[in-house]
Specification:
Layout: E1 2-6, H1 13-21, E2 26-30, H2 34-37, E3 49-53, E4 60-62, E5 74-77, E6 80-81, E7 86-87, H3 92-95, E8 102-104, H4 107-121, E9 130-133, E10 136-139, E11 149-152, H5 163-166, H6 168-176, E12 182-188, H7 194-197, E13 206-212, H8 215-221, E14 222-223, H9 228-240, E15 245-252, H10 258-272, E16 280-285, E17 288-289, H11 290-299, E18 310-311, E19 316-318, H12 321-334, E20 339-340
Parallel strand pairs: 1-2, 1-3, 3-8, 5-11, 11-12, 12-13, 13-15, 15-16, 16-20
Antiparallel strand pairs: 4-5, 6-8, 7-14, 9-10, 17-19, 18-19
Helix pairs in contact: 10-12
Length: 345
């Protein structure tokens, strides 16, 4: 294994833990992770390789309006880049020059950015009592506000799968517990829930969102991810221990015989998961901006599902209305409160 470490990241606690864990790895110190990350490299050159770096750019970006809950303020935040999984439809497949995972280790800087966003959202005045202890800002306010503020942590990588290197769970799940009416979503295709179960408490401010698709589509389009059976097993374990679990049916794929495939899938889910215990469900189609779509076509011109999409008046590229209506009705029958992502329906 080769680990590239930015010199400016070398003294962080997370870096020291990584070096201690991978004692036999070859360590190479570099000046800037982008000098490696922003290069096109042959696939063989980054097998068993990752980068440890300091994030100097903003960690937080705005999520689209109505991305999930009925609020218009939510954010994505990143602590890593790239994903070990090989989902053929994922926008990450063209977004970066290569597939080397990057782990950002300046967690306290990222946490402080989150605190600032929470305070901004709550419209705190200058007299708010904020205490700084061990580089961690803690909000000392019980201000009321109407809608929950959401932070989505898994837009740039599968956080749960990477937790054996990043230690994201113990660092950020407890961190979010300090806030009122502020939530974090951890979305994953992994069934390895050990780091969740190893938490010493059941968090109230973190929702664990497991993405699901029919097994035959997992095998074809979601390579290296956990099987449907193992994901369902993980869901049922978490539900039995009272964790907040969401089901994410996404992306629903425009495959041939989609009605037959997905109707059997929905029936299977209903039989194997107690939907009354599930916090919420969410569906989304295969969805791209025009920019993402054109880049995906350039990189993967033989990917069949890309040619079963069309441009809508909102500038998104997605399945046609008939297919979306079918999915909408199917999953609303499974859960009447099922939320539809970024669609006028």
């Amino acid at each position: 294994m080769i680990i590239y470490i930015e010199k400016q990241a070398s003294e962080y606690n997370q870096t020291k833990k990584i070096i201690e864990k991978f004692k036999n790895a070859t360590i190479i110190f570099i000046d800037n992770y982008k000098n490696l990350f922003d290069k096109k490299l042959p696939e063989w050159s980054f097998k068993n390789t990752f980068i440890v770096a300091k994030l100097n750019s903003p960690a937080i970006t705005d999520a689209p309006n109505w991305y999930w809950h009925n609020n218009k303020t939510s954010y994505f935040f990143k602590t890593s880049l790239n994903c070990i999984y090989d989902c053929s439809y994922c926008f990450l497949k063209w977004a970066f020059k290569n597939d080397i995972p990057v782990y950002f280790v300046n967690y306290e800087d990222i946490k402080n950015q989150i605190v600032n966003k929470v305070n901004e959202y709550k419209k705190l005045d200058d007299n708010l009592d904020i205490e700084e202890t061990d580089y961690e800002l803690k909000v000392k306010s019980s201000c009321n506000y109407n809608e929950k503020l959401w932070f989505y942590s898994s837009d740039y990588s599968d956080i749960l799968w990477m937790d054996n290197i990043s230690w994201f769970m113990p660092e950020f799940v407890e961190f979010f517990e300090q806030f009122d009416n502020t939530m974090m979503e951890i979305r994953t295709k992994s069934s390895n829930i050990k780091s969740i179960l190893d938490l010493w408490f059941v968090p109230k401010n973190t929702e664990f969102a497991i993405s699901l698709n029919p097994q035959e589509l997992i095998e074809k389009y979601e390579k290296w991810t956990s099987s449907l059976d193992s994901r369902i097993e993980a869901i049922n374990i978490l539900l039995s221990k009272w964790y907040n679990v969401w089901l994410r049916f996404l992306p629903l794929l425009p495959v041939k015989n989609y009605k037959e495939i997905y109707s059997e899938f929905a029936k299977d889910i209903k039989e194997r998961i107690d939907m009354k215990k599930v916090s919420s469900t969410f569906v989304s189609w295969l969805l791209y901006t025009k920019w993402d779509y054109n880049n995906m076509l350039k990189k993967y011109p033989k990917l069949d599902i890309l040619y079963r999409l069309k441009e809508e008046k909102d500038w998104f590229i997605r399945e046609d209305r008939e297919m979306r209506d079918y999915f909408y009705n199917l999953f609303r029958n499974l859960d009447e409160k099922c939320f539809i992502c970024l669609d006028e329906k």
